[in-house]
Write a structure and sequence with these properties.
By secondary structure, this protein is of the alpha/beta class. The chain is globular. The mean pLDDT is about 85.
């Protein structure tokens, strides 16, 4: 593992200045505001009143400057105006369709009494002006969305009504402002009767379609803090020293949580992955949170301030620009972002301006390298922990050993810091399912892999400590189990579907998965029958999954795939071998690559001569004859000529996985969401000029990148850029790249040679997948079924636990 850290390059500094906008910025603001109000909610969904901009009701100040009588009169006036607007809009745009819905449901909407309107002429004009736009905006205005859903509800039959009923009820609970109250009341009136007869069993049976793939429920959802963020902020606000074990699935906002914590504390954010630190730095700058960076620092003197944190500097009188910064003055710094090796420098820097108890150490992925018996990094980790004087610490990771197994570490930290309060914060967000598939293409679920109930009970005890595993339980397999058990096993009445769930709206993905765990525990006497039933019944979803460049490519949908392996060269060779690219094409490509390599070496030679000439010109003295500029110009011209001679390297399109021609070859041209690469000629040319193995260049033409310590820094940099922009079809990487990798992957392979990888690291590997939206398909595909036991049973000899007790004692 390459954990060497370098100072930020000029390019990296410049990248921090690119502003974050849109929804991402709103998320950051919510994180910041959420520290003061953990129940903060934000929803941008447009309603009719918001769209027409009629939500400009005057509000009086909430203080003693306004007497209660005047306030009451103003509130009544505002309500009257809102009611009049709702009445006018409902009758003009919504009433007719709502009446048709009522007819289909053989029900009558309560008659709305006519009322005398006191709308201002300006309000009426605004409403009338919307007439011409009404057909173009229906898909984005909430009232029309509701009308469409209730119309579908009225047309549907049987259990399928459940989906629309559930969607409408869920949408009503969102924080969407200024919904037309008449429409909402009428819809509620029409669907209320259905709630009494709604079929919960059918709903559970179809949970995958009705809940997990329900686009409306996720599309219009409130923007809120995750439950684990609420717990973190609430505990952090309490007085006294604190140690927090902060464990939540990857992709749920852990590493951005310091944004809110900075409202109370000065933050030292420590990470091993530089790009994670840069992501936080960019977010802070977008919110004008004052930051410093400590990367590759040997002492506090190497720490650099971002311009927004500068207190003392020299400015250009004309432009106001800063050109001489005193980095030693850090009074303004709110968050300092550090690599692990620079932590003590960052700590000493921050304590020079702040009391230790006013600082919080937020350590991202503290278990990196702890899965090795010995590692050069261990000495650094131990030194940082033993010399740390910051009494407020958050250890943040998707996987952390249980504090009950860390007696030596906990004893040491309590001895060091008096009155230390400890709390574990654990999240098991699993609204988005990322199923695990074994080598036979079957879903991995406890009732499919453990033949005895004793093994199931051991598994359940383990899952209680690692509930993040629930996100890997495929909802379709779970619901099949639930229905079978309800129909065929001796359950007490209170545990059956219709009694366990109060109503349909109380059912969600998490409650279904927890119900599955409950049933697993209860079915001891019937378990053998259940296991045999599903053993005979289970069919494979895919015949195979490993032919990545040929017949199985179409199964890799919606986004890039990552293949984790120890021997990345072997997997790269396998991808090339199975692609069966004709020898004549390979020979032609290799010939072009060799030609380009010769040109590259010549260009490199000329470039060195050009740079030497420039340096000589700068250092020349009056007694020396200047290097003729014309010579340099000729060299530049020659260099440009050589670049034009570079061969354009191309791969036959039918050998590029999931390209249209490739899909036709394998009879899968009807697969609309098969994911393929998108690498432009400029990037290909850059790669072809790098000093890397020719096979990596051929793989790139197929859309396959490789992360390996043996590759050049320039190659890895280009691969990371392509991965971030989702331009690659497949990335082959060693497991040391999994920590802090924030790239968006839809599918992942855990290679055969990773048998023996620790439980924590396996879960970290699984956490690379599914960091995008719910509408996509995800999967984790095992190449060695022994990994199943690693995931679903307790590890007796946990090396991470052992190392934390030894190094952090």
């Amino acid at each position: 593992m390459d954990l060497s850290q370098r100072k930020l390059s000029q390019k990296e500094w410049e990248s921090l200045e690119i502003p974050i906008r849109g929804r991402e910025l709103k998320v950051l603001k919510m994180l910041y505001d959420g520290f003061d109000n953990v129940n903060v909610k934000h929803n941008d969904t447009q309603t009719m009143i918001n769209y027409i901009k009629l939500d400009d009701t005057p509000v009086l100040p909430d203080d003693n400057s306004v007497n209660s009588g005047k306030k009451e009169r103003m509130d009544k006036k505002n309500k009257k105006r809102k009611d009049d607007i709702d009445y006018y809009i409902y009758n003009k745009y919504l009433n007719d369709k709502m009446n048709r819905v009522a007819e289909k449901l053989e029900n009558k909407i309560p008659i709305i009494k006519k009322r005398k309107l006191t709308l201002k002429k300006a309000d009426i004009i605004r409403i009338e002006n919307m007439e011409s736009k009404i057909h173009n905006i229906k898909d984005s205005i909430f009232e029309f969305i509701l009308l469409d859903l209730v119309y579908k509800f009225s047309e549907s039959e049987g259990g399928s009504k459940n989906k629309y009923y559930y969607t409408i009820v869920k949408l009503f609970k969102y924080n969407i402002l200024n919904i037309n109250t008449i429409l909402k009341d009428n819809i509620t009136y029409l669907i209320d009767e259905y709630s009494k007869t709604a079929d919960k069993v059918t709903f559970i049976e179809n949970a995958y379609d009705y809940i997990e793939r329900n686009e409306e429920v996720t599309k219009y959802k409130d923007l809120t803090l995750f439950p684990h963020q609420k717990k973190l902020y609430t505990f952090a606000k309490q007085p006294g020293n604190k140690l927090i074990f902060y464990q939540a699935p990857t992709g749920t906002g852990k590493t951005l949580s310091p944004i809110g914590l900075s409202k109370k504390y000065k933050i030292i954010f420590v990470c091993a992955a530089k790009h994670v630190g840069l992501q936080l730095a960019k977010a802070c700058i977008s919110l004008d949170i004052k930051i410093a960076v400590a990367f590759g620092c040997k002492d506090p003197g190497n720490i650099r301030l971002h311009w927004n944190a500068v207190k003392e500097s020299v400015r250009n009188r004309k432009t106001g620009g800063i050109f001489r910064v005193d980095n030693s003055v850090g009074d303004n710094v709110e968050i300092i972002i550090s690599d692990v090796q620079s932590y003590l420098s960052a700590m000493n820097y921050m304590t020079a301006f702040n009391k230790p108890e006013d600082i919080l150490l937020f350590w991202d992925e503290p278990t990196i390298t702890l899965d090795y018996d010995t590692h050069p990094y261990h000495e650094i980790l131990s030194k940082n922990w033993k010399e740390n004087i910051i009494p407020n610490v958050v250890l943040s990771s998707a996987t952390l050993p249980s504090h009950t197994d860390l007696s030596d570490m906990m004893s040491g930290v309590h001895e060091k810091f008096e009155s230390l309060e400890f709390t574990p914060i654990t999240s098991y967000d699993c609204t988005k399912t990322i199923p695990i598939i074994d080598t036979k293409g079957k879903d991995v679920l406890p009732h499919l892999i453990f033949p005895t109930h004793g093994e199931i009970k051991n598994c359940l005890r383990h899952i209680r400590n690692f509930k993040t595993l629930l996100r890997h339980f495929d909802i379709r397999g779970i619901t099949q189990f639930i229905i079978y058990v309800n129909d065929n096993c001796a359950l007490k009445e209170r545990f059956k579907i219709n009694n366990h769930f109060e109503n349909i709206e109380s059912i969600d993905i998490i409650s279904i998965k927890l119900y599955y765990l409950t049933l697993l525990k209860l079915v001891g006497d019937d378990y053998e029958k259940i296991y045999q039933h599903f053993k005979m019944k289970t069919t494979t979803e895919f015949e195979s999954t490993i032919m990545l460049t040929t017949k199985d490519a179409y199964t890799l949908t919606d986004g890039p795939t990552i293949y984790l392996a120890r021997d990345v060269d072997k997997i790269g060779d396998f991808c090339l071998k199975t692609a069966k690219i004709p020898k004549v094409m390979i020979d032609s490509i290799m010939e072009d690559i060799d030609t380009n390599e010769d040109i590259r070496l010549e260009i490199e030679k000329i470039s060195k001569e050009i740079n030497k000439n420039k340096d000589d010109k700068k250092e020349e003295d009056k007694d020396k004859e200047a290097v003729p500029e014309i010579k340099t110009e000729l060299l530049v011209e020659k260099c440009e000529y050589l670049k034009r001679q570079l061969k354009r390297i191309q791969m036959g399109t039918k050998f590029i996985p999931n390209n249209i021609e490739h899909l036709k070859v394998w009879g899968k041209e009807d697969v609309g969401n098969a994911f393929t690469s998108d690498i432009n000629d400029e990037t290909v040319e850059k790669i072809m000029l790098l000093e890397v193995s020719p096979k990596w260049k051929i793989l790139l033409l197929m859309g396959i990148g490789v992360f390996s310590l043996n590759n050049s820094d320039d190659y890895v940099s280009i691969m990371k850029n392509l991965a971030e922009k989702q331009k690659l079809y497949l990335i082959i990487a060693s497991t040391d790249y999994i920590y802090g990798t924030n790239y968006q992957f839809c599918h992942g392979y855990i290679g055969k040679d990773l048998n023996g990888m620790t439980q924590e690291k396996t879960i970290q590997g699984c956490g690379r997948i599914g960091r995008s939206d719910n509408k996509k398909n995800y999967s984790i595909r095992l190449r060695n079924d022994d990994i199943v036991n690693t995931l679903f049973t307790k590890s007796e000899n946990n090396i991470e636990t052992k190392n934390m007790n030894e190094l952090f004692a």
